[in-house]
Amino acid sequence: MANFGQSQSRARDGLLAAAPRLYKFALAITANADLAQALLRGALKSLQNRKDWRQNDRDHLTEAFRRIYALWDAKLAEDPNLQKKYVPDARLFSASLLKGSLAGNAHFAKFISSLPSQQRAALYLVYGEGASYDEAADAVGLEMLALMKCLARGHVALSHWLDTRGLSEGSRQGGLDIDPSIIRERAA
Amino acid sequence: MTHLSDEFLLAYLDGQLEKTQAAEVTQLSAVNAEVSRRIARLKRTQAQLIETFGAFARDDVTVPKAALQMGDPDAQARPQRAASQAVSRPSAEVSSSGRSPAAARQMLFVAAVFLGGLLGGYGATLLAGDPAPLPPKDTDRPASAVIAPTAWPTDIARFHSYFPRETLTPYPDAIANPELIRFQLSKITGRALTPPDFTRQGYTLYRGQTFNYRQDRMMQLTYSSKNEPPVTFYALPGAESGDSAVAVQTIGSLKGVNWVFDRVRFFITSDRSEEDLKVLAAVAQSQMTPKR
């Protein structure tokens, strides 16, 4: 019983330590702090009895992401107008964007917050968390090929956004080209 | 391999392709200006997304304490839910102090039925003694017990019988990009495999789908023909017992051929003769030389 208690406590500590990452994923999905909090609460509750949960285990982390996304799906099923009720909060993204090459571009933050929630979640997992396609597809409940289409659509939308503002060339000159190996290293 | 989709090129840039596939794209981009230009364009958006979401992921964030309450996470959501229910069903709103006698009687009746059911059901279990232990779940069993080499073709044939003929005919939204299908096939089998090309037999690959098969993933490829019945091809990893030659399988009205090569299981089925299926298997075998 003591061992069970210890491992449960370790799992709980692990969950709390991973909470910021999970919260950011919830923010990436919803673009709304209130909704993100609700998703995180639900996911933590559903995982609190998993005494073997470890924050450094990628499978466990993917499972937590999956639960958060499943809760979001359930909320949307319960209330299809949910997304219309909550205006995406672009400010959530502008804080981090201010450090990037599009510093101060509020329109870019707005563009990110206007992406479909599933697409934003997938992009966040692959490019923010360095998740593999397998992990991202698992987390957002998509088939691998559907995930690839979802990511590609995100790229097309961004490319169009950059083109219409004459920013494509500037971004390239700004030295934004990143070697694909970086992604692999991040995923590892 | 010149008609590469954006999805496939993106998988290349994101480091998701098998080594051999990635090397092919690298070689192609060196000699094909169009592919090179598309890769450069995707690279720019990839860099922007990494910068944006990478910064977002690295940023320090304070999780509100309310979100960390594991005890009763729905507690805060309840008043809202209750409020929305009250708006949608105003007639159902009843204060706790002013319940009508009819409602009280209704509650008593429900409670009595529930209690009766509980006592009856539990009483029956007491009289019956200890129930027999449940068999272990599929996922709890050792892999060798779950993937019985002799059973898998039968399993897949049964699985296939759930697909009516009309679902095996082309439709506009089918994922037919051979490169994407190849990517998926390689992911599932862990081998750099190319989908078989049955063009000479009059068949066109028009759809690739993945399914769960016990603890594994399984790829289903469907080929259509103008004059012949569709052909369905399955590939899945596993098989502890080594390679096996092509064997014919007949389950009910369904005929199929199966074989195992390099720890990948293959199954082809179609409403065609046994000989035709063997020919298709031979074609597939000759084309699908798995490379590690």
Give an overview of the whole structure.
The complex is a heterodimer of chains A (188) and B (292). Helix content of chain A is 74%, strand content 0%. By secondary structure, chain A is mainly α. Chain A has a single domain, classed as PhyR, sigma-like (SL) domain (Butyryl-CoA Dehydrogenase, subunit A, domain 3). The longest helix of chain A has 29 residues, at 2-30. Chain A is globular. Residues 170-184 of chain A have low confidence and may be disordered. Chain B has 292 residues and is an alpha+beta fold. Chain B has helices at residues 6-13, 19-31, 33-58, 77-88, 101-128, 143-146, 152-160, 178-189, 274-287; strands at residues 204-213, 216-224, 231-237, 244-251, 254-261, 264-270. Chain B is flat. The chains are: A mainly alpha (188), B alpha+beta (292). The interface between A and B is large, with 64 and 52 residues.
Strand numbers in spatial order across the main sheet of chain B: 1-2-3-6-5-4
Work out the oligomeric state of the chains in this entry. Answer: heterodimer
If you compute it from the alpha carbons, what radius of gyration of chain A comes out, rounded to the nearest whole angstrom? 18 Å
Outline of chain A:
globular
Q: Please tally the β strands of chain B and state the result.
A: 6
Number of helices of chain B: 9
From the N-terminal CA to the C-terminal CA of chain B, the straight-line distance is 20 Å
- Estimated structural class of chain B: alpha+beta
Secondary structure class of chain A reads: mainly alpha
Compute the number of structural domains of chain A: 1
Query: Which CATH top level class of chain A fits?
Result: Mainly Alpha
How far apart are the termini of chain A? Answer: 36 Å
What are the segments of chain A in which pLDDT stays under 50 over at least 5 consecutive residues?
170-184
Q: Note the main sheet of chain A.
A: none
Major sheet details of chain B: 6 strands, antiparallel
Largest interface: A-B, 64 and 52 residues
